[in-house]
Every structure is written in structure tokens, then in C-alpha cells.
Amino acid sequence: MKSFQFGRVDALLLLMAIIWGTNYSVVKGAFAELNPQAFNAARLTIGSSVFLAIIIAMRLRPPHPPAPGQTDSIGSIFYTPAEITGRDWLGLAALGIVGHLLYQYTFVAGLSRTSVANSALMLAATPVIIALITAALGQERVAPLHWLGAALSMIGIYIVVGHGARAVGSLRGDLLMAVAVCCWAVYTLGSRPLMTRHSPVGVTGLSMAIGTLLYVTVALPQIRAVDWGSVSRGTWIAIVYSALFALCIAYTIWYSAVRAIGSARTSIYSNLVPLVAMFSAVLFLGEPLGIRKILGAAAVLVGVALTRVGAARRAVPTCE
To answer: Which of 57, 109, 150, 254 has the least CB density, counted as fewest CB within 10 Å?
Structure first.
């Protein structure tokens, strides 16, 4: 058995956890000036444009094949050699609707109405929801340890959200985040067939572009109501940071790590995201961090860890 060695990939994964964790506070802080849906439309437009530019560039100049002795190359993270069929486009459209239109809409609506801690912890339970869905569909057999993990995570969420939800946010915000978790779980499961034929960035970028087009259409009244010329420099920095770092760079780090060190070791770092989110909210937004949240966070994270034990499933990000 090889001993664990902290290397460049691990350092990048820590950076990813910091990006995703701090993104909650960055986004919520910008809501003080900008309508949440208008903010999200702007960052999605920038993020999907960057992904499309990468996909087009890779199509025009495909990467070199893997060197002898290698089974994969970094280019395969971005490049899709297979042609996109009509059926693939239907699948990408469905992913765009569920994973980027519905998820993003409910995510920012929920985050704008509840605390960063509540939002991050609820999204951290996505692997639990995925395990339950796959068990219900008969795709995977969920072991007793996984059921214990699911129960612990639900208890942890209840500890954080179930009592005094209106003290730091609204029950409506927590319910919207619960819908967002379900949408992301469905997106996660639905993306697996496409990712067996196409690159992760290709599937993510194309589905995000479709979802963004629909999102902008739905949020057009909020977008038009904004005087974009008067938006402060700090809010523009938040939009660009969230688009380039949370939507583009962090995704690339995640999928590169999955290829390099495997999904099991990569997924460990996603468990750091809610912790970073909670403490960054305390530092930058002044959100309270009491014993109830600490106990709830511990229960959620232990529950998620238990659902991962012995699970051989494709790792997909649980937060944006």
C-alpha cells in the first residue's frame, strides 16, 4: 500500500476548496447591491463563454495524444474527440435545464434568503441524495453504512436548519436550497452517460451554455432593471471572480484531479468546502457560528463520509 504524499494535485485541490468555500460569501456579499438573479445571469454568461472558447479552441487545434505508457492526457479533460449526436444534444439540453437553469435559479434564490452556513451544509449532503436516488432506481445497492450516513446527514441538517431557521435566514430560503440539492443530484446522475463519451469540460461547458441562454431569458426582467453602468467595481470583481474561479478554474482542477489521483481521494477535499464557507462567512459577513452549527456540520460531514465508504462512483462537484 502506497503512503499518502501531498503533491501538486493536492495543493490545487486545497485551492479548489478555498475557491468554492469563499464563493458563498463573495456571492452573498454582492447581493447587497445587485439583484441575485441578475448577478447570476452575468456570472453564468461569463463562465459559459469561457468554456465555449476553450471547447472551440480545442476543436480547432486538438491536443496531442497521450505519450507512450500513459492512458490519458490533460487535453482529454477539455477535448471531446467523439462527434455530438442528436441524442447527445437532447441530453445536454436536459442537463442545461436541470443543472444550470433550475439549480442555479434555486441556488441563488435560496442563498439570498438564508445563511451561508445553511446553504453550504445542505449542498454538502448532495452525495447522500445521490445515494438514495440510485438506490430507489435500483442502479446501486446502498449498504447499511450508507443508510447510517444518510440518517446522520439529515439529522445534521435538521440541527442547523430545523430550529431557529428564521433567526439567520428564512425557511423559504432553506427550502429553495433543498430543491437546489435535488436538482444538482439529478444533474450529477444524468451527466454520467454523456461523460463516458465526451470530455467533462465539454459536457459541462455545452450544458452550461444551454442553461445560461434559458436562464438569461427567464431573468431578463431582473437584468433590465439593473443600471449596469452604476454597478460598483467591487461587485464586478465578485461577478468575474465567481465566474472564472468558481465556475471555470475550480471545475478544471476537480476533473484534472479525478483523472490524476482518482475520485475517492479527490472527493475528500470537497468535504472541506462547507467548513471554508462557514468560517469565511463568519470572517467576512459576520454570520454567527454557534455550537448548534458546529454540531450540525460535524454530523453532515461524517454522514457524507460514510456514504462514500466503499462507493465506486464517478465524482462530480457538489457545489458551484
So the answer is: 57
Q: CA 84, 89, 92, 94: dihedral to nearest 10 degrees?
A: -160
The answer to whether 127 and 318 have CB atoms below 8 angstroms apart is yes
| Grid coordinates given for 182 | 435535488
CA dist 121 and 157 (Å) reads: 7
For every residue of the chain, DSSP letters joined together read: -PPP---HHHHHHHHHHHHHHHHHHHHHHHTTTS-HHHHHHHHHHHHHHHHHHHHHHHHHSPPPPPPTT-S--THHHH---S---HHHHHHHHHHIIIIIIIHHHHHHHHHTTS-HHHHHHHHHTHHHHHHHHHHHHTSSPPPHHHHHHHHHHHHHHIIIIISSHHHHS-HHHHHHHHHHHHHHHHHHHHHHHHHTTS-HHHHHHHHHHHHHHHHHHHTHHHHHTS-GGG--HHHHHHHHHIIIIIIIIHHHHHHHHHHHH-HHHHHHHHTTHHHHHHHHHHHHT-----HHHHHHHHHHHHHHHHHHTT-------S--
Query: What's the mean pLDDT in 152-178?
Result: 69
* 122 and 298 Cβ atoms separated by less than 8 Å: no
**Residue 165: what pLDDT?**
46
At 291 the pLDDT is 81
In whole angstroms, give the CA distance from residue 65 to residue 79: 11
Band of residue 148 on the pLDDT scale cut at 50, 70, 90: confident
Helix axes 263-270, 8-30, angle to 10 degrees: 40
Residue type, 169: G
- What are 52-92's pLDDT values in tens digits? 999 998 888 776 655 555 545 555 667 777 888 999 999 99
Please count the residues of the chain. 320
How far is the C-alpha of 203 from the C-alpha of 195, rounded, in Å?
A: 7
